């Protein structure tokens, strides 16, 4: 069993009497029922022996991963099973059908995806609408643990089962087999599900989708992929009937096209037995049909050698930033997945990494493009393509294209240096070695997905040790000659195709793009990085090592708090539960509270440029050099009340990681280039916010939720125009010096060595400047209860809208336990909203409700519901949301409904609890608020136990005490539709007794 779960689970159990004493959880929810072991099943008959070549490895000499057990039933169905205990008690099931949108005829477009919906709607063992609640009762969250995806080449059904019992495991196999083998494909079900799919299509629409469609049509001209979106078309979906969908199902849903993958905390023989029991009798209807020919990229007629420029497109989208993608297209062919083949892939990967580093270096230095990259990919078994993507900084796209092509031309003219190769090899080696270190904590769901992906590209899987051995065995081939040869192959093809997107009509024409792509360019060697070694050993000390003034246990397990004379505090938990992994986080300063109203542009730029600006004499390129061959991160975040640095690193690198974090505070660098690049990115991207309602919500929701607090505004290009590197420093330099610092390190590390490193880094910082009361006391303000509906407009499709309704809650830790119960209430709200808007009305594809509760300030929490809809349905959303809020406050809530909310939520937290980072997040801030350590003891219980009356009291307190604040995003030129007036009951906002104590 995972130590983290065991340790904190024990704490949760110890706290139960206290919970009962408060009366809060006097009638807790029972855990998933424990059943007696079902009757023994026959031994699996079709499991392949160790002497046989497993079906996945046929034609390959890659060493077989013997932790997998493979089987092939005589009906043609193949399966793979494996034991894995991450997270404990979970089983991950995947059923892959070798049929996606490329298998559809013209009149069937969208049927593969529609079937995905219909299988969840009704099947042999599940009546209409039973699938979601049935899986919830088994602890699975709809959309998270139970889901499906349709790609051009396959449809995959995903079930992750938490807290399995023998009974629930067999029940799940039974339900899933009924869905796959005997769905009810009636006219009634098709007519009910098509509006939901059309809602999903609507939410995908807009400028982005138009660009995606045009790109596929251009790059894959003449192939099925050019016009086979998995979502389909309104015409083909509108014409779908039970009979036509049944015909597609019968053609492709058959055992020969099916692979079942099962991974989890169970004997793999038991998993094999269940696969054979529930899928062994399945027989396809009629003769097996071969997959259609997906086609090949074809050069234009009359081409004479070389790689000719073929189909091109210039798209004008006023709200989209400039981008140019062009591709070297080659036919896709099946390969023998051998060791030599994989060595070739690794050499190509090194070649791409070298070019991409050069392109990034050029962009950082103030070039003509914001970003550029090269990516080779095998796409939907339709093409082997090398795609070059970049964003011009302005309207001179030809100069940007010439600059990008110049870097590539240099790579094609001159071999890379061995130093460049070695640098990229070190990066890959670290990644492969890290997988070996952490193989014992690889989640079962990820292992199952790896098998599915391997089948999709017709390749194998390899154990982490095997992958590392193959990579290191390729070492002698990582030389300038072989990498140079691989580079040249990347830029060979049958045809070049490309798409330029611009907001400015008339800026480019297809003929000009054709000439620019065909034009000879000069090799540009300036982006090659000079050989410059940078070592942590050469970096200066941050200051004299600090003095430890206190070391103490926080009162929870073996978690220690260390305080230094300068006021910095560290919270450390050294454990071996995640081998090699270390999670680190630094919390400092005041977060958004620190800024003045006019600082918004610098807030936006800071999120991108602060870390990139470097430290001391180390610029952004030197930071990359320091991280070569290391597992290091430097993520910066701005929270409501603190700034954060975060990293997922490893035992060998944690000490240098801490140096980087401390040096950013103690000796920051103010390089202007990252500031100017971030400024350009913000200016270029702003117009795209108007392209859809979802983008408008991303732009403005947080701003309006805080009563139009200017610190939270997304700055316009006009606001960004005044940003300067000097102004950036004036805003950010004081922010790095003020407010308390807390360092959290959780994972496998040498405690005493890390404490000494902290003494030399964070302990060496100057004393922090205190937060002035004006900053410390700034709190977010929720809109007034009588605020009118806020209406925003977008310039996307005329049938797209979005709506948000929100209620204020609270914040801080005094009522933190109440916030956990609010998450259960929000799950109830979300389930009802999904049922109302998706299942009954077909008005929205994925409505949801969210609860947010900041722990560092006493207010600012919200319960929020949101959905994307058609404009005329915006009032319907508000009415349904208010009705749900009222019903939760006034009508008894059935226990079964509470169970269906509690079980998935509790299981989600139980699984997350296998991670050190999860516990770090629960305990951040504990050095200044010791009550957080005690509140951890009740965490599991607070999420897994409640009563109907508690839910009703919370609904009265938060959902019925005032009207919900409303925001609507509708198309430009339209008026907000009017709905019915909704009467709200009035309540005294009383709190449940002892809630949060």
TrEMBL record:
Which ranges carry the Peptidase M16 C-terminal domain?
A: 243-424, 741-903
Chain segments annotated as transmembrane: none
Is this entry keyworded Transcription regulation? no
User: Under what name is this protein listed?
Assistant: Zinc protease
Pfam families per UniProt:
Peptidase_M16, Peptidase_M16_C
Q: Taxonomically, which superkingdom?
A: Bacteria
Q: What InterPro entries does this protein map onto? A: Metalloenz_LuxS/M16 (IPR011249), Pept_M16_N (IPR011765), Peptidase_M16 (IPR050626), Peptidase_M16_C (IPR007863)
Q: Which GO terms describe its molecular function?
A: metal ion binding; metallopeptidase activity
Keywords carried by this UniProt record: Hydrolase, Metalloprotease, Protease, Signal, Zinc
Stretch forming the signal peptide: 1-20
